[in-house]
C-alpha cells in the first residue's frame, strides 16, 4: 500500500473518530422554512429542537419575552477570537480539545484512565500548581474546586460519571454552548438597540422541554487556572422543574432523606449556575469544576437538557443521587 492510500485511510479514520465524540445526533430539519431571529412566531412551532439543517448548522427554538418564539443558529464551532480583554466577541475555539496532554480524550471525547493516572503536566503547568490556583481564595475567591479536592481527582471522578451515563464530554458541553451562542447573538443584537427594543431570553426549547435560562454579565473577568486564553465574565443560570412522575420517583427512592437533604438533592438535579469559561473547560479538558458554586455538574446538564432520564441518572450514580451531589472528589473513583 503506497503512502497516499495510507494517508487517505488515516484521514477517514480520524474523521470517523472525531464524529464519534458526539453520541447524540439531532433530527434533520429544513431551515429554509424557519423564521430566524429577530423574526418571531406568536405560537410555538411543532418542530424538533435542537435540530440540524442540510448544511449541518445546529438550530434551536427559543422563547423570548411576550411569549414569542424564534429560531437561532447556535452551531457549536470554532469561530473568531473570543477575548474580553481586547473586546473581541467571536465564538472562540468551541471544538478545541487538549490533544497534547490528553490524546485519547481529544480523539474520543472521554479520558483514558491510564493517561489520567500518568498526568503530571496540563497545558505546561504542573497539576499541583493548577490545584493550588483552583482552590478557594486563590485565582478566584470561591475557587474552581473545594479545598479538599485536586484537579486530577475532579477529572477522574467526572470522567467515570460521564462514562456511566453513556455520554462523552462534548455531548455535555454542546447544549451549554448552544445556550451561550444564543445569548451571544442576543447580546450583539441588543448593543445596537434601545432598552425598549432589546430581546430578553426566557427559555430554550430542548428535547421537548422548555429550559428556563437567565444570562448576565459582570464587570471585569476571571482568569483561567490553565495556561490558555479562556476568560470568564458572565453568569449562566439554567433550570427546569420536575414533573409529577419524576417527583413521585424521587419520593419513592429517597424517602429516607430528611426534608432539607431532599431539597438539596432536588435543587442539584434541576438547577445549574455556572459561567461561560466552564463550557470551554468541559470540551477542552473534561473539567466541570469541582464542588464550587459554579460547578456545571454533568448529571445536572444531562437531566436539565433532556439527554438522560431521572431513572438513568439514579442508576448511573449507584442509586444515591444525594450522596453523589454532596460528596467531594477527594479519592479516586471506584
State the major sheet.
Answer: 8 strands, mixed
Mean pLDDT across all residues, rounded? 90
Structural Rg: 20 Å
Q: How far is the N terminus from the C terminus?
A: 45 Å
Spans where pLDDT lies below 50 across 5 or more residues: 3-19
Structural class based on helices, strands and sheet pairing: alpha+beta
- List how many beta strands DSSP finds: 14
Estimate the strand proportion: 15-25%
| Number of discrete domains | 1
Write the layout of secondary structure elements.
Layout: H1 3-19, E1 27-28, E2 51-52, E3 58-64, E4 68-73, E5 82-83, E6 88-89, H2 103-108, H3 113-117, E7 121-122, E8 125-126, H4 127-134, H5 151-164, H6 169-190, E9 201-206, E10 209-216, E11 222-223, E12 231-232, E13 235-239, H7 244-253, H8 259-270, E14 271-274, H9 276-285, H10 298-304, H11 310-316, H12 321-326
Parallel strand pairs: 1-2
Antiparallel strand pairs: 2-3, 3-4, 3-9, 5-6, 7-8, 9-10, 10-13, 11-12, 13-14
Describe, in short, the structure shown:
The protein has 334 residues and is of the alpha+beta class.
Comma- or semicolon-separated keywords:
two-stranded antiparallel ribbon; globular; 334 residues; 12 helices
What does this structure look like?
The chain is α+β, with helices and mostly antiparallel strands. It has helices spanning 3-19, 103-108, 113-117, 127-134, 151-164, 169-190, 244-253, 259-270, 276-285, 298-304, 310-316, 321-326, and strands at residues 27-28, 51-52, 58-64, 68-73, 82-83, 88-89, 121-122, 125-126, 201-206, 209-216, 222-223, 231-232, 235-239, 271-274. A hairpin with a 2-residue loop joins strand 7 (121-122) and strand 8. The model is unreliable at 3-19 (pLDDT under 50).
Amino acid at each position: 500500500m503506497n503512502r497516499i492510500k495510507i494517508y487517505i485511510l488515516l484521514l477517514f479514520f480520524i474523521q470517523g473518530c472525531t464524529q464519534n465524540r458526539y453520541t447524540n445526533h439531532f433530527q434533520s430539519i429544513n431551515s429554509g422554512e424557519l423564521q430566524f431571529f429577530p423574526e418571531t412566531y406568536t405560537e410555538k412551532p411543532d418542530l424538533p429542537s435542537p435540530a440540524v439543517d442540510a448544511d449541518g448548522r445546529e438550530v434551536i427554538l427559543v422563547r423570548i419575552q411576550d411569549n414569542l418564539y424564534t429560531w437561532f443558529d447556535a452551531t457549536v464551532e470554532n469561530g473568531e477570537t473570543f477575548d474580553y480583554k481586547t473586546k473581541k466577541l467571536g465564538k472562540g475555539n468551541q471544538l478545541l480539545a487538549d490533544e497534547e496532554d490528553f490524546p485519547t480524550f481529544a480523539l474520543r471525547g472521554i479520558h483514558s484512565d491510564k493517561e489520567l493516572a500518568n498526568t503530571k503536566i496540563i497545558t505546561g503547568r504542573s497539576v499541583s500548581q493548577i490545584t493550588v490556583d483552583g482552590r478557594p481564595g486563590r485565582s478566584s475567591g470561591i475557587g474552581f474546586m473545594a479545598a479538599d479536592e485536586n484537579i486530577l481527582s475532579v477529572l477522574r471522578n467526572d470522567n467515570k460519571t460521564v462514562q456511566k451515563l453513556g455520554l462523552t464530554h462534548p455531548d455535555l458541553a454542546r447544549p451549554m454552548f448552544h445556550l451561550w451562542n444564543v445569548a451571544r447573538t442576543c447580546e450583539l443584537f441588543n448593543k445596537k438597540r434601545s432598552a425598549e427594543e432589546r430581546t430578553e431570553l426566557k427559555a430554550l426549547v430542548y428535547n421537548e422541554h422548555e429550559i428556563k435560562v437567565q444570562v448576565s454579565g459582570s464587570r471585569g473577568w476571571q482568569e483561567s487556572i490553565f495556561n490558555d486564553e479562556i476568560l470568564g465574565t458572565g453568569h449562566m443560570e439554567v433550570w427546569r422543574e420536575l414533573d409529577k412522575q419524576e417527583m413521585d420517583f424521587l419520593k419513592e427512592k429517597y424517602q429516607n432523606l430528611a426534608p432539607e437533604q431532599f431539597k438539596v438533592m432536588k435543587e442539584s438535579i434541576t438547577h445549574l449556575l455556572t459561567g461561560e469559561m466552564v463550557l470551554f473547560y468541559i470540551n477542552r479538558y473534561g473539567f466541570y469544576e469541582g464542588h464550587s458554586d459554579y460547578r456545571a455538574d454533568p448529571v445536572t446538564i444531562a437531566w436539565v437538557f433532556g439527554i438522560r432520564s431521572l431513572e438513568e441518572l439514579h442508576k448511573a450514580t449507584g442509586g444515591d443521587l444525594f450522596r453523589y451531589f454532596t460528596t467531594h472528589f477527594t479519592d479516586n473513583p471506584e
